[in-house]
Design the sequence.
Protein backbone atom coordinates (compact mmCIF):
# COMPACT_ATOMS: atom_id res chain seq x y z
CA UNK A 1 0.00 0.00 0.00
CA UNK A 2 1.27 3.36 -0.97
CA UNK A 3 0.99 6.19 1.47
CA UNK A 4 0.37 9.50 -0.26
CA UNK A 5 2.70 12.21 1.05
CA UNK A 6 1.22 15.58 1.82
CA UNK A 7 2.56 18.28 -0.46
CA UNK A 8 3.09 21.03 2.15
CA UNK A 9 5.07 24.24 1.89
CA UNK A 10 8.29 24.22 3.84
CA UNK A 11 7.89 27.89 4.77
CA UNK A 12 4.46 27.44 6.36
CA UNK A 13 4.44 26.97 10.16
CA UNK A 14 4.00 23.54 11.58
CA UNK A 15 0.68 22.46 13.13
CA UNK A 16 2.27 22.58 16.58
CA UNK A 17 3.32 26.19 16.12
CA UNK A 18 -0.12 27.10 14.79
CA UNK A 19 -1.77 25.46 17.79
CA UNK A 20 0.46 27.38 20.23
CA UNK A 21 -0.27 30.64 18.42
CA UNK A 22 -4.01 29.99 18.67
CA UNK A 23 -3.73 29.26 22.39
CA UNK A 24 -1.93 32.54 23.10
CA UNK A 25 -4.04 34.96 25.07
CA UNK A 26 -4.79 38.30 23.42
CA UNK A 27 -3.09 41.39 24.82
CA UNK A 28 -5.05 43.44 27.29
CA UNK A 29 -4.81 47.17 26.61
CA UNK A 30 -6.77 47.86 29.78
CA UNK A 31 -4.03 46.32 31.92
CA UNK A 32 -1.45 48.60 30.33
CA UNK A 33 -3.58 51.70 30.94
CA UNK A 34 -4.16 50.60 34.53
CA UNK A 35 -0.43 50.18 35.03
CA UNK A 36 0.25 53.66 33.63
CA UNK A 37 -2.39 55.15 35.93
CA UNK A 38 -0.88 53.40 38.94
CA UNK A 39 2.60 54.59 37.96
CA UNK A 40 1.37 58.17 37.62
CA UNK A 41 -0.33 57.92 41.01
CA UNK A 42 2.84 56.65 42.66
CA UNK A 43 4.88 59.46 41.08
CA UNK A 44 2.33 62.06 42.17
CA UNK A 45 2.34 60.69 45.71
CA UNK A 46 6.14 60.71 45.79
CA UNK A 47 6.29 64.30 44.52
CA UNK A 48 3.71 65.44 47.08
CA UNK A 49 5.68 63.74 49.87
CA UNK A 50 8.88 65.38 48.63
CA UNK A 51 7.16 68.77 48.52
CA UNK A 52 5.83 68.27 52.05
CA UNK A 53 9.32 67.37 53.27
CA UNK A 54 10.75 70.70 52.03
CA UNK A 55 7.72 72.91 52.77
CA UNK A 56 8.80 76.09 54.54
CA UNK A 57 6.73 78.97 55.85
CA UNK A 58 7.63 81.97 53.70
CA UNK A 59 7.73 85.41 55.37
CA UNK A 60 5.98 88.27 53.56
CA UNK A 61 8.06 90.52 51.33
CA UNK A 62 7.95 94.29 51.73
CA UNK A 63 6.79 96.08 48.56
CA UNK A 64 9.05 98.56 46.80
CA UNK A 65 8.71 100.68 43.68
CA UNK A 66 11.75 101.09 41.42
CA UNK A 67 12.17 104.42 39.63
CA UNK A 68 15.24 104.43 37.41
CA UNK A 69 14.62 108.07 36.49
CA UNK A 70 15.35 109.17 40.07
CA UNK A 71 19.04 110.06 39.63
CA UNK A 72 19.39 111.23 43.25
CA UNK A 73 18.34 107.80 44.52
CA UNK A 74 20.74 106.09 42.11
CA UNK A 75 23.65 108.26 43.24
CA UNK A 76 22.91 107.72 46.91
CA UNK A 77 22.62 103.96 46.34
CA UNK A 78 25.89 103.97 44.39
CA UNK A 79 27.69 105.72 47.26
CA UNK A 80 26.62 103.16 49.86
CA UNK A 81 27.10 100.18 47.54
CA UNK A 82 30.57 101.12 46.29
CA UNK A 83 31.88 102.21 49.71
CA UNK A 84 30.20 99.61 51.95
CA UNK A 85 29.04 96.56 50.03
CA UNK A 86 32.13 96.23 47.83
CA UNK A 87 34.25 95.70 50.94
CA UNK A 88 33.30 92.02 50.53
CA UNK A 89 31.09 91.76 47.43
CA UNK A 90 31.83 92.52 43.81
CA UNK A 91 29.83 93.87 40.86
CA UNK A 92 31.53 92.09 38.01
CA UNK A 93 28.63 92.76 35.67
CA UNK A 94 29.55 96.46 35.57
CA UNK A 95 32.58 98.70 35.05
CA UNK A 96 33.20 102.03 36.71
CA UNK A 97 33.12 103.69 33.29
CA UNK A 98 29.58 102.40 32.71
CA UNK A 99 28.13 104.02 35.84
CA UNK A 100 28.18 107.76 34.88
CA UNK A 101 25.48 107.40 32.17
CA UNK A 102 23.28 105.44 34.59
CA UNK A 103 23.78 107.97 37.39
CA UNK A 104 23.46 111.01 35.14
CA UNK A 105 26.97 112.25 35.92
CA UNK A 106 29.95 113.26 33.84
CA UNK A 107 33.23 111.41 34.14
CA UNK A 108 34.80 114.20 36.19
CA UNK A 109 31.86 114.52 38.59
CA UNK A 110 31.68 110.75 39.00
CA UNK A 111 35.34 110.59 40.03
CA UNK A 112 34.88 113.56 42.35
CA UNK A 113 31.62 112.56 44.07
CA UNK A 114 31.73 108.74 44.07
CA UNK A 115 35.20 107.68 43.01
CA UNK A 116 36.63 104.37 41.85
CA UNK A 117 38.18 103.08 45.12
CA UNK A 118 41.70 103.69 43.77
CA UNK A 119 40.96 101.54 40.73
CA UNK A 120 41.27 102.39 37.07
CA UNK A 121 38.27 104.07 35.49
CA UNK A 122 37.62 101.20 33.06
CA UNK A 123 38.14 98.37 35.58
CA UNK A 124 35.44 95.90 36.55
CA UNK A 125 33.97 96.60 39.99
CA UNK A 126 35.49 93.97 42.26
CA UNK A 127 35.79 93.52 46.01
CA UNK A 128 38.28 95.67 47.88
CA UNK A 129 39.28 92.72 50.07
CA UNK A 130 41.31 89.81 48.66
CA UNK A 131 39.28 86.57 48.33
CA UNK A 132 41.75 84.69 50.56
CA UNK A 133 41.17 87.12 53.43
CA UNK A 134 37.39 86.94 53.00
CA UNK A 135 37.46 83.15 52.97
CA UNK A 136 39.61 83.06 56.11
CA UNK A 137 36.94 84.98 58.03
CA UNK A 138 33.68 83.68 56.54
CA UNK A 139 34.71 80.27 55.09
CA UNK A 140 32.64 81.18 52.03
CA UNK A 141 33.12 83.65 49.20
CA UNK A 142 30.41 86.36 49.12
CA UNK A 143 28.30 86.16 45.94
CA UNK A 144 28.48 88.75 43.20
CA UNK A 145 25.84 91.46 43.67
CA UNK A 146 25.03 91.54 39.97
CA UNK A 147 24.00 87.89 40.13
CA UNK A 148 22.01 88.46 43.34
CA UNK A 149 20.15 91.45 41.86
CA UNK A 150 19.24 89.46 38.74
CA UNK A 151 18.16 86.38 40.64
CA UNK A 152 15.96 88.03 43.27
CA UNK A 153 13.18 90.57 42.98
CA UNK A 154 13.51 94.15 44.29
CA UNK A 155 11.02 93.30 47.07
CA UNK A 156 13.23 90.42 48.21
CA UNK A 157 16.34 92.61 48.19
CA UNK A 158 14.62 95.39 50.13
CA UNK A 159 13.23 92.95 52.71
CA UNK A 160 16.66 91.33 53.04
CA UNK A 161 18.47 94.60 53.67
CA UNK A 162 15.97 95.74 56.32
CA UNK A 163 15.31 92.47 58.18
CA UNK A 164 18.51 91.53 60.00
CA UNK A 165 17.90 90.57 63.63
CA UNK A 166 19.90 89.45 66.64
CA UNK A 167 20.46 85.69 66.88
CA UNK A 168 23.02 84.51 69.48
CA UNK A 169 23.04 81.01 67.97
CA UNK A 170 24.70 82.24 64.77
CA UNK A 171 28.49 82.71 64.42
CA UNK A 172 27.96 86.32 63.32
CA UNK A 173 25.36 86.95 66.04
CA UNK A 174 22.71 87.90 63.49
CA UNK A 175 20.19 86.25 61.21
CA UNK A 176 17.81 87.33 58.47
CA UNK A 177 14.08 86.98 57.90
CA UNK A 178 14.20 85.98 54.23
CA UNK A 179 17.59 84.20 54.38
CA UNK A 180 17.71 81.85 57.33
CA UNK A 181 21.20 81.15 58.72
CA UNK A 182 22.75 83.81 56.52
CA UNK A 183 26.54 84.06 56.75
CA UNK A 184 26.60 87.84 56.21
CA UNK A 185 26.92 89.97 59.36
CA UNK A 186 24.60 92.91 59.96
CA UNK A 187 26.75 95.65 58.45
CA UNK A 188 23.81 98.07 58.65
CA UNK A 189 23.49 97.79 62.44
CA UNK A 190 25.38 101.09 63.05
CA UNK A 191 22.93 102.85 60.72
CA UNK A 192 19.68 101.02 61.47
CA UNK A 193 20.29 99.73 64.98
CA UNK A 194 19.74 96.21 66.30
CA UNK A 195 16.43 94.40 65.79
CA UNK A 196 14.65 91.45 67.33
CA UNK A 197 12.55 88.92 65.37
CA UNK A 198 8.80 88.41 65.29
CA UNK A 199 8.44 84.61 65.57
CA UNK A 200 5.50 82.35 64.76
CA UNK A 201 5.00 78.59 64.65
CA UNK A 202 5.59 77.31 61.15
CA UNK A 203 7.42 74.79 58.98
CA UNK A 204 11.05 74.74 57.93
CA UNK A 205 11.84 72.01 55.42
CA UNK A 206 8.77 70.10 56.53
CA UNK A 207 9.56 70.21 60.27
CA UNK A 208 7.84 72.43 62.89
CA UNK A 209 10.03 75.39 63.87
CA UNK A 210 10.00 79.01 64.95
CA UNK A 211 9.80 81.16 61.81
CA UNK A 212 10.73 84.85 61.74
CA UNK A 213 8.20 86.82 59.70
CA UNK A 214 9.33 90.32 60.66
CA UNK A 215 11.49 92.43 62.94
CA UNK A 216 11.06 94.99 65.68
CA UNK A 217 13.58 97.68 66.71
CA UNK A 218 15.78 96.83 69.68
CA UNK A 219 18.27 99.69 69.69
CA UNK A 220 18.57 102.91 67.71
CA UNK A 221 21.15 103.61 65.04
CA UNK A 222 22.67 106.76 63.62
CA UNK A 223 19.77 107.09 61.16
CA UNK A 224 16.09 107.49 61.80
CA UNK A 225 13.83 104.70 60.50
CA UNK A 226 12.72 106.92 57.62
CA UNK A 227 16.30 107.77 56.65
CA UNK A 228 17.44 104.15 56.70
CA UNK A 229 14.35 103.08 54.79
CA UNK A 230 15.20 105.60 52.06
CA UNK A 231 18.82 104.44 52.04
CA UNK A 232 17.80 100.78 51.65
CA UNK A 233 15.46 101.72 48.80
CA UNK A 234 18.23 103.67 47.09
CA UNK A 235 20.62 100.71 47.36
CA UNK A 236 18.03 98.38 45.85
CA UNK A 237 17.34 100.88 43.07
CA UNK A 238 21.04 101.10 42.23
CA UNK A 239 21.47 97.30 42.28
CA UNK A 240 18.45 96.88 40.02
CA UNK A 241 19.85 99.49 37.61
CA UNK A 242 23.21 97.70 37.52
CA UNK A 243 21.62 94.27 36.99
CA UNK A 244 19.37 95.68 34.21
CA UNK A 245 21.75 98.25 32.80
CA UNK A 246 20.05 98.39 29.38
CA UNK A 247 16.49 98.75 30.63
CA UNK A 248 16.41 102.54 30.24
CA UNK A 249 17.70 102.23 26.69
CA UNK A 250 15.08 99.56 25.96
CA UNK A 251 12.35 101.84 27.27
CA UNK A 252 13.65 104.65 25.06
CA UNK A 253 13.97 102.56 21.88
CA UNK A 254 10.92 100.33 22.46
CA UNK A 255 8.23 102.70 21.08
CA UNK A 256 10.31 103.46 17.99
CA UNK A 257 10.87 99.76 17.25
CA UNK A 258 7.16 99.00 17.68
CA UNK A 259 6.33 101.88 15.33
CA UNK A 260 8.83 100.51 12.79
CA UNK A 261 7.24 97.05 12.88
CA UNK A 262 3.77 98.56 12.46
CA UNK A 263 4.95 100.57 9.44
CA UNK A 264 6.54 97.49 7.90
CA UNK A 265 3.32 95.54 8.48
CA UNK A 266 1.27 98.18 6.62
CA UNK A 267 3.75 98.31 3.72
CA UNK A 268 3.86 94.51 3.51
CA UNK A 269 0.06 94.34 3.37
CA UNK A 270 -0.09 96.94 0.59
CA UNK A 271 2.58 95.03 -1.35
CA UNK A 272 0.60 91.82 -0.86
CA UNK A 273 -2.54 93.46 -2.30
CA UNK A 274 -0.54 94.84 -5.24
CA UNK A 275 0.89 91.43 -6.14
CA UNK A 276 -2.44 89.62 -5.97
CA UNK A 277 -4.11 92.17 -8.22
CA UNK A 278 -1.90 90.94 -11.06
CA UNK A 279 -2.38 87.24 -10.37
CA UNK A 280 -5.17 85.65 -12.40
CA UNK A 281 -7.28 82.94 -10.88
CA UNK A 282 -8.16 79.74 -12.75
CA UNK A 283 -11.65 81.02 -13.59
CA UNK A 284 -10.35 84.25 -15.07
CA UNK A 285 -7.72 82.38 -17.08
CA UNK A 286 -10.26 79.96 -18.61
CA UNK A 287 -12.65 82.81 -19.32
CA UNK A 288 -10.00 84.67 -21.31
CA UNK A 289 -8.98 81.53 -23.23
CA UNK A 290 -12.57 80.75 -24.23
CA UNK A 291 -13.15 84.36 -25.25
CA UNK A 292 -10.20 84.29 -27.60
Sequence:
Amino acid sequence: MRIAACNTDRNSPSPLVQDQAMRKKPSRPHSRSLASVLTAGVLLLASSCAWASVATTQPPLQPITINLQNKAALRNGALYTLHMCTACHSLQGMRYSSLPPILGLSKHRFKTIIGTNDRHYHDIITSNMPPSVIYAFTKILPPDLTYIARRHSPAWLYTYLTSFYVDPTQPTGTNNVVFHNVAMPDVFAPLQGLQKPILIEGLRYGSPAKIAIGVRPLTRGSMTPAQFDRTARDIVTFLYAVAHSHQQERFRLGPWIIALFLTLSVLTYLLYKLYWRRVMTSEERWWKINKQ
In short: The first strand starts at residue 91 and ends at 95. The CA atoms of residues 57 and 244 lie 30 Å apart. Residues 71-243 form a domain with the Cytochrome Bc1 Complex; Chain D, domain 2 fold (CATH 1.10.760.10).
